[in-house]
Description:
280 residues; 9 helices; 14% strand
Amino acid sequence: MLYRVLIIDSAGNLISSYRVGEIEVRFKDESLMSGFIAALLQFGEEIFARPQRIDLDGYALSFYKFSIDTKYYYVVVLTDSTDNPNATKKLVLKLVQELETYIKEAATSDIFIVDERIESEIRSRVEKIAREYLRFMASYRSGGIKSILIATIAGMGVYLLVSMIAFGIPYLLGFTGGEGMAGLSTFVAPVFILGASVGISAGITAGKPHEGAISGWLAYSIPTIALFFIEWIYIWSLSIALSILVFNLIGISTFSLTFGYIFGLWEDERKLTVSQASNK
């Protein structure tokens, strides 16, 4: 989650500060903090080339350096340390892209002047970008049990929908694919499509890779056991039904788990989260 945007010069002077949202992260002395940030970034540049993010006590400082004439400035954003580094990097680059014009306008003279119009424009852009980069339903999709629960429910919903399309409609139309192993082979491709669909939906909904993997596995396994195992026993012998169940729980559920992880990571690298502390 984005809490604050700071604009500082190379000497560590605080030019402007913008609070985002209702949660206040208090600095005892913002001017002192901006000087510390500038010194820390300069130290980082000398030792580690050019850093993009520094994690400090549950928060993350992400920054971008740009120059105007012979002077250079930093746009620094304060977010949760639980936010994916790629997401915070995209955020700070977007902020610089949107704010650079106004910062250049304020730096046209020897004295950096942020008048009321520029202040209003910058604040408006910051608030817009903060909303754009915070994931939808962030309180439920920022990791932990909530993410697993809501992603599992979403994945099971997709499971039911895709199953109805892939298996229910052909069954109603009288197409069974034959008997025995010949009939089983007809359903292999739809089963893999089903597993991928469940994993993708669970991963995106969870918004985190590990939660996406867990919910992807659960969202496929639970309805498979609850809805189809008895039907398989009725259609085929018990040994074949058990073989299908093992194939689904070990093979297709793992396939769904993999897609859940991949798309959970993809979503996590796009949008910011809400920390567990902020969520309470």
